[in-house]
Amino acid sequence: MEWDIAERELSGLSVSANGKNELVTVEGSSNEFECIGVGTDAAVFRSLSEPQYAFKVFSNDKLGKLESEIEVYQKLGRSEYFPVYYGRGLNYLVISFEEGVTLYDCLWQGIHIPHQVILDVDNAISYGLSKGLNPRDIHLKNIILHEGRAKLLDVSEYMKPGNDRRWEYLKEGYMEYYHLFDGKALPLLLIETARKWYNLTKPESFNVQDFVKAIIVLFRMSR
Hints:
The chain is of the alpha+beta class. It folds into 2 domains: 94 residues, Phosphorylase Kinase, domain 1, CATH 3.30.200; 122 residues, Transferase(Phosphotransferase), domain 1 (Orthogonal Bundle), CATH 1.10.510. Helices cover 39% and strands 20% of the residues. The chain contains 7 helices and 10 strands. The strands form 3 sheets. Strands 3-4-5-7-6 form a 5-stranded antiparallel beta sheet. The radius of gyration is 18 Å and the shape is globular. The protein starts with a helix and ends with a helix. This is Serine/threonine protein kinase.
């Protein structure tokens, strides 16, 4: 790809952070890129002329996270469980665009999540640990499903210490309760309410059983 063209097009796009746990704001337009996702630190754009590339553009006050994420990708190297890292610019990194649907979207669209996803994520975590990293912040929007297999999309926190237990809770919820929702399209409001409840709960005091019971009550009320 002509990187100077990418630089010029991306310079017309502005990504601004909006505070803790708030999504970034994207301003500007480009004939070369389409925005395919936003997070709390960056927005991801896909090249229209060469759609195999995705550009993750960070807000100017989050460039430290850009450097950290690049270091993570360099340590990971090539792996079937993560996107391919191609390079960087002043405020962005370039990775492979990964086809598929996030597990978040699977829930609200009623798409079956196979057990192989659990195995793939566990293997991805083991691989990351073997590279001296600490895979964490693994949640529904960071796991993509394509042709029955899983891939992890966001590695921005893999240099941080500690265990946020997000994957452990998701895995437990899947193993014990997913059969109750499998194939059912969950209301978006229900999923968002569950996400906000979880974010307000300290990991060490979180109880999967009580959480799922509350979600089931909400699910029945929403039908």
